[in-house]
Amino acid sequence: MKQPTSIRKRLFFQLAAVAAVLSLAFVMVVRGVASQAAEGTQDDILAASATAIADSLTSEDGKVTLELPYSALSMLGTINEDRVFYRVMVQGETLTGYADLPVTRSPRRLDTPAFSTEIYRGDEVRVASVLRRVANTATGSEVVVSVAQTRSGLAAISRRITITATSVGLLFFLLATTLSLLAANSALRPLRRMTGAVTRRGPSDLRPVTAEAPKELVPLVDALNSFMGRLRSSLSRTEDLISEAAHRVRTPLATVRTQAEVTHRKLNKPEHKKAIRDMIRAIDESSRSAGQILDHAMVTFRADSLALDPLDLAALINETCDRLAPTAGLKDIALLRELPDRPVPFNGDGIMLQAALHNILDNAIKYSPEDSDITVRIASGSELRISIADQGRGFGGMDLKDLTTRYSRGANVGDVVGSGLGLTIADEVAHAHGGRLELSHSKEGQGACVSLILPYV
Amino acid sequence: MRYLLIEDNQKLAGAIVERLQLDGHAVDHADRLDAASACMDVADYDLILLDIMLPDGDGRDFLQRQRRAEKRTPVIVITARSAVSDRISLLDLGADDYITKPFDFAELEARCRAVMRRQGGAADNQKTFEGTVLNLTTGALQFGDASTNLRNRELRLLEVFFAAPGQVFSKSHLIDRMFSFSDEASENAIEVYVARLRKRLEGSGARIETVRGLGYRMIPA
């Protein structure tokens, strides 16, 4: 799968690359300028030295003579420990100095020093040559004064400069990289804030996003808000549709069922009564299934983005039991509650938990024999355990795991009305809260025990 | 008991009225909210059955107006919706209970009893026969100094006899009154409950007599 591209990474790498190029350029420029400056200094001294020597050239008896001024060479000693060579040539003949010292060939212009870099005795040397015309004869002689110096001092200087420049460049790069990391983070902070504002929402919160957005994100926020607006109106249309459909279907069903009850009361023949009873049961079955399918859809929808509200589970269980007590009473079934007197705090989705409890209890009532007890207990330890035990027919040796799968019903349900969604709903609610549904055989007698186990978050 | 039924569907309303009358209740029917308000101005009701979708408004608004006006007549909402979240919001609005269409009248009756017990308006809903008092809401049976509480089915059975003392009721009629349609009831079950009631009535001024081949009736002891 393709990794999603990260704006932060891209921004960071781009800024870092710019910093790297700048650092590199800085090092190169500093190195170039510094070595050029150093070379220039050496050239200036060499030229001064050669000129000083040339200035002490005299003509004596038509011959060119030289009283070598030692200051001319000693000034070269200011640069490091480098060795110094010189050569004075008159008309191509060496007058004094190192006869094998290479001489700068060009350009040859009077009194303008020329420079070249040569190899002498295995070392690189910088040579400065000055051309001077000495009037010893009628025509005069051309004298070339060359002064040379090895360049190890210069190399050392250049090395030092390079090291300093590189360290400064590296430091700059590191600083710039850190800053670009911070910049990338801070540039994306509004985006993160907006993401948080959207993801923290509950399942049905479709209000527009009001988190402050920078100018560049305003179009995105607007698009998101308009999308949520459309979703909201679509959901409310769906809700209206379901409500309308439920009304249109359930109202005539209620009419039929009521009329059937009236008719049933008036009929005398057992076979007629049975037919009406069967009809009423079919109506009950379809109504119950429709209710469970709606509950199931609601649970699936809410599980996607679970609301974690502070709840009192004891109150929730009491409310659900109060609600179902009249239904249970029709079969003389007592709903016994073994609940603590104090509140049982839990963070969860109250509507989903109520749907789960309602469906478990409804199932228990349906499968319980008349004149029996259903016991609701709550036990808290490392996790919360709400168990609902009945004295009914139990799970009849069926694989307990299969019972929570959608539309599967126990093997021994016989004639009892049911769609098989009840335990599936409870199971999904448990899973949405990070818990599970446990089915076992009840301790009292041979009935079933359904436990909703919820971990504390 | 006197009911006010607020329901705009004429066929359903007619069926409900007939069904409630079969159990001996008085029912007024209003098909709009304004008609319902008019009914409430002239009569006192033990219980209001309220539909939510009405032509001249939402039943929930009616409910809120009632509660704001401190009118405490118990209200059971008849709703076509069944999602849990809807149920919760109904109770928040001040409904005492709700029942989902289509509904079982035995369940409706059980819910009415539960609501009236909670409201404390049960005292006057009782019948007397030969010094024996049966409270139809709480299921309390009193004679002399003795008082017992009947279970739901015992109450529903004895209620039939108290409604018409001396009248003979067939087993099949009694089955109809006692069991809901999801139960598979046999005539033997009636014998079991009659035996229980006889035990409950021991020492009272009433007894249940078997009329061979016809059924049972309640006569003075």
Automatic annotation (TrEMBL), chain A:
The keyword Membrane applies. PROSITE patterns: HAMP, HIS_KIN. Its EC number is 2.7.13.3. This is histidine kinase. The chain crosses the membrane at residues 161-184. Coiled coil: none annotated. It is an enzyme of class 2 (transferase). The keyword Transmembrane applies. One of its GO terms (cellular component) is plasma membrane. Residues 185-236 form the HAMP domain. It is found in: Membrane. Residues 244-457 form the Histidine kinase domain. It comes from Litoreibacter halocynthiae. Keywords: Kinase, Membrane, Phosphoprotein, Transferase, Transmembrane, Transmembrane helix, Two-component regulatory system. Gene3D superfamilies: 1.10.287.130, 6.10.340.10, Histidine kinase-like ATPase, C-terminal domain. Signal peptide: none annotated. It catalyses: ATP + protein L-histidine = ADP + protein N-phospho-L-histidine. InterPro entries: 2CSK_N (IPR013727), HAMP_dom (IPR003660), HATPase_C_sf (IPR036890), HATPase_dom (IPR003594), His_kinase_dom (IPR005467), HisK_dim/P_dom (IPR003661), HisK_dim/P_sf (IPR036097), Sig_transdc_His_kin-like_C (IPR004358). PANTHER family: SENSOR HISTIDINE KINASE YKOH, SENSOR PROTEIN QSEC. One of its GO terms (molecular function) is phosphorelay sensor kinase activity.
From TrEMBL, chain B:
One of its GO terms (cellular component) is cytosol. CDD domains: trans_reg_C. One of its GO terms (biological process) is regulation of DNA-templated transcription. Residues 2-116 form the Response regulatory domain. Residues 124-220 bind DNA. Keywords: DNA-binding, Phosphoprotein, Transcription, Transcription regulation. Residues 124-220 form the OmpR/PhoB-type domain. This is Two-component system response regulator TctD. The lineage of its organism: Bacteria, Pseudomonadati, Pseudomonadota, Alphaproteobacteria, Rhodobacterales.
